[in-house]
Amino acid sequence: MADVKEKTKKPVGRTDKSRQDIEQPEVVIDRTRDPIVVVDGLHIIYRVYGAGGDKGSAATAMMRMVRRQNRPQMKEIHAVRGVSFIAYRGDAIGIIGTNGSGKSTLLKAIAGLLPPHRGGVLTDGQPSMLGVSAALMRDLSGERNIILGCLAMGLSPQETKERYDEIVEFADLKPGFIQYPMSTYSSGMGARLRFAIAAARTHDVLLIDEALATGDAKFKRRSKAKIEELRKDAGAVFLVAHNLDVIEETCNRVIWLDDGQIRMDGDPQTVIEAYTDATGK
Amino acid sequence: MSHPERLSPPGGEPVDAIAKPPSPNGKSSESLTEFAARYGLTQSAARPPMSRYIRDVWQRRSFIWNFASAKSMSMYTSSRLGQLWQVLTPLLNAGVYYVIFGLLLQSNRGVTNFPAFLITGVFVFSFTQRSLTAGARSIGNNLSLIRALHFPRATLPFAFVIVELQHLMVAMGVLMVIVVATGEMPTFAWLLLIPALMLQLLFNIGISLIIARIGAFSRDIQQLLPFVTRSWLYFSGIFFMTAGLANRDSLKDHPWVGKILEANPGSVYIELIRTSLLESYPKDLAKFGWGHHHLWLYGLGWALVAFVGGFWYFYRAEERYGRG
């Protein structure tokens, strides 16, 4: 029951006045290809609570109710500011940017987990998101997680049985671990198993948020092959990672987010080069 | 979401300019959204139509069953007595209530077989009570699952009620032994346990769906819920006969009190099971001039209202679970 809250690693306290608008690249519609995700002028604003300051006692909570105030220290964060782009079938799009530039927020919005404040996200099919968060079902064994994950995705019990071995093989856990509860897994093992389960079904849109970061070299190679496979099935894959090598190897297009806006959108080498220059890495 | 007007954006952003790019082949009026709509793209994570939603839930029935079994199994793995707690917990509860209400307060007036009467009440009510508690947590405690995979969210409250049903099955086995041990032989009326429990199951799923939606958006309900279920417990005729209470001198002039207590769904399912399981109980009721056949109508009505209403209510927020 520990995974109720997800970590938020967003910048707090910046006001909109101090932020500069950059000229975002214009969206050009490529009519020879099928779009699968269209993000149109998307703004995401969300609130964080309890950013500190309040004494947090019952009396102050009571006073707040009496005065009909909102919860204390509520800050609104304008995390994504007017982003537009089109993803086509077969795209593998890497999203890069410094911490707090809105990458994860953008993915969540595409997955439909954050309501857009303005603008919209339109997709074909239901996007699935693989995040860094904890195991699917922490208290259950890896074995159970595979079966339940497959059934939840809508596979029949028969199909689940057929894919089981494939998933175990792909996740490549240490022998025996498949029978232990997922809470005993290292973060790398958990990520591998989650990815293996999600990849057992073809997804129209797969969103991967740092989920591959904890894997070792061997797993990275295999997940890259799997992403290729998903792309060939005419889906789209979004990948957020701080490891630029992974992005450069896996993606055919990179979007550079800067302070909630698109700074650059193009082929991996060019964008990554510009990004490296700008951030001085 | 509750104060959309509070979120009006700071002006001066070139959103609209970006949203309507001049298209290369002359169709300059087409916005991105229109372009997307032309290709049949839909709003991300929109709620499917009701008929498809029902089909999706039905298609996940093996997920519901497997999830419930896995949860049941893992629930007691860290305790030494393990699955034995499934039987021990309700028995201990029944023991406490027996000492307090049977021995100390002597609330067993009018009941021939008080131990079986009391234990039936405790077991059957705890099915409803635990379904509610589990339902309230079913969304909040499974956020990582909800965010990672796409599936109809209603399957989670369903699964958690099935967990409680599996516990109840064990408890019913214990109960039957107790009934026989207290000197009542099995009769054909025991077959009525099946429809009675089915109706209670439907009712429990319904209220769990309702509480699941409420619990998903305001965690405060989890603090409040124990109080609600405890109050409900005291009104549901578990340690005393509702018929006996309604016939008291102080309540004689207010027959509607008895009617309300009798129609209370918490009590309806308990009474249905008591009258089916205990041969002596319908006679006890008859002494107060109370029948029990009409309880089946109440049971059916509550089950349908709760299940249909709960499913509809839960479904209305389908696209919002897991957001934040």
TrEMBL record, chain B:
Keywords: Antibiotic resistance, Cell inner membrane, Cell membrane, Membrane, Transmembrane, Transmembrane helix, Transport. The keyword Lipid metabolism does not apply. The chain crosses the membrane at residues 84-105, 111-128, 156-182, 188-212, 224-246, 295-315. The keyword Metal-binding does not apply. It is a multi-pass membrane protein. It is found in: Cell inner membrane; Cell membrane. Its main location: membrane. Residues 81-317 form the ABC transmembrane type-2 domain. Pfam families: ABC2_membrane (PF01061). Residues 1-30 are annotated as: Disordered. InterPro entries: ABC2_TM, ABC2_TM_bact-type, ABC_2_transport. Belongs to the ABC-2 integral membrane protein family. This is Transport permease protein. It comes from Actinomadura alba.
